[in-house]
Amino acid sequence: MGKRIPFYILLALIPALVISDILINPLRNIKKRSATDVHTHAIEIYWVKIDCSVTSRFSRNVITSRAVNRANVSKEAQFDVELPKTAFISNFTLTIDGVTYPGIIKEKEAAQKQYQQAVSRGQTAGLVKAAGRKTEKFSVSVNIASSSKVTFQLTYEELLKRKFGKYEIFIKVNPKQLVNKFEIEANIFEPQGISELDVEGTFLNNELLPVVKKSFSGKKGHVSFSPTIEQQRTCDNCTTTLLQGDFVIKYDVNRDSPNNLQVVNGYFVHFFAPKILERLPKNVAFVIDVSGSMYGQKIRQAREALTKIVEDLKEEDHFNIILFGSSVSTWKDDLIQATPENVNQSKEFISHIQDSGATDLNGGLLTGIDMLNKAHETKSVPERSASLVIMLTDGDPTAGVTNLGQIQENAKNATKGRYPIYNLGFGYDVDYAFLERIATENNGVARRIFEDSDAALQLQVEE
Fold it and tell me: pTM for the full model?
């Protein structure tokens, strides 16, 4: 038997029961190289497919990625996947030039020891590490000979959870380059019957929305998304890809009662889903970037998006608007009730928002959080209500605190887990990863608003 290259995963295979790791065994020995020797631009990912199969709210997902080394020397190929933290990996294989190397599950300590031994011998190894509040990052690299091909295939499984009245299939999309054939396909089977089916995507602009195909009838539902290379481009002649962000399939099932018991293959699961829940009033701090970089289409979209959101507020809600550029200002001193009169006044204020100055993002964000804190301390909002921050911005901070890590820490310390932060990022050049980190660390989500798209339409799609 040839030399072995361990491959291990720091991942809870079954949460709260056992932590196991995965090893690739056997795999040929590959000489270790320094970081300066690693070049990835010659590796072409020519085929990516994400295949989801859901039965009775249990999802089995197979991610397949195929790459070829177009260079005349060996190169390193990297395979990165972000998985939901509630999922577990059930299989992983590498196929190099037609030879398949399967993964095997081992206890964490044994796999950790073999992994360290492999690294010391200069052999290839992989690692899973936390990538945020909602995901784990699976990563493995392997050297590929000139003109050789490699296929990475990862299978993970997950019991879907119901959020805001719908079950969610969460898929993180990030091929990092244009892909000749990219496809997401999901087939859903629910014995109770499917009552609704929808798809959301943080990267879906007006051109990509029609590429999403969805249908359901009776017990079956189907979703597909297969954009061409031209549709993947960020612009007509660009070599960068739009496909970066979240792709979320949401659906619900028919119910005769708020609970349902299902038995499959000798196992049972009991679902509880109350139909009628009282709506909680919302307290919203809108934090708006009005710096000079928001000039033109971005500031118009920000006004359009903010107007759309305040129009959807209910009279029992409370809100205020915080503007940040070189300095921070507020529309009102405190949160006010969303009466028809106040909403109309806010829309008039929004229509006159202009861009100017630098970007004190940290100051604007903390001002919004402090305003929510004050409202709860003075009991000026209902005790049973949900508070949140919605921030609209296009870029990096350039005034006040500018260190991204410090801003993240400040936001986390200020909210103390009490308020989610939702970020809307404007433009192709926005630091979306930064906005996403702030959102996920504070129990919120981030969304991208594209400059060439209708902001209000995109917000409607996300709702």
Answer: 0.59
